[in-house]
Amino acid sequence: MRPIWVLVADNSQACMYHFQPHQHNLQLLDYIQHEEGRWHSGDFVTDKTGHTTKTRSPTSMANRGLGVSDRSPKTQENTRFTKLVAKAINHAHEQHSFDALQVCAPPGFMGELLPKLKKDVPLTHKVTKNLVTENDQRIMQHLDTRTLTSSYL
Fold this sequence. Notes:
The chain is built from 4 helices and 7 strands; from the N terminus they run βββββαβαβαα. The chain is of the alpha/beta class. The chain has one domain (about 5-40, about 70-150): eRF1 domain 2 (Nucleotidyltransferase, domain 5, 2-Layer Sandwich). About 20% of the residues are buried.
C-alpha cells in the first residue's frame, strides 16, 4: 500500500511526514521554510498604498486611495505560502504518492489550505493546532491512529 502522509504546518514552515504504522513513527519527507511567515506587517517593504486623489466636494471623501488592497502584505504572503503547500499536496496526490492525509495546522492556516486542496485528496483527519515545534511523539498523540492503522488492514 502507498503511505499515509501527515502535514504539520503553520504560516512559516511546513513538514510532510510519512507514517509507518508497523513501526509507529513518523519519517520526515519534506520541509519547507517560509521566513516571511514570521515577519510582522511592518517588516514588509512596501510603498504607499497607491495614488491619492483630492476632491473639493464637501460630501465626498477628501482623500481616496486608488488601488488600495483590502489585504495586508503579511496576509498576502501567508496566502502565497498556503497555495505553495496545497500545490505540492495536490501534485503528490496526482502522482498517487499517498493513500491518506492528515493535517495539523492552526485554524487560520487550515482555513486557507483546505479550499485549495482538490476535492479528491483523501483527507482523513484534521487537527487545528500549531504543532510545528513539537517532536514526533507529541505530534503522533494528536493523530487519528485508527485511521492510520486501518488503512493497512
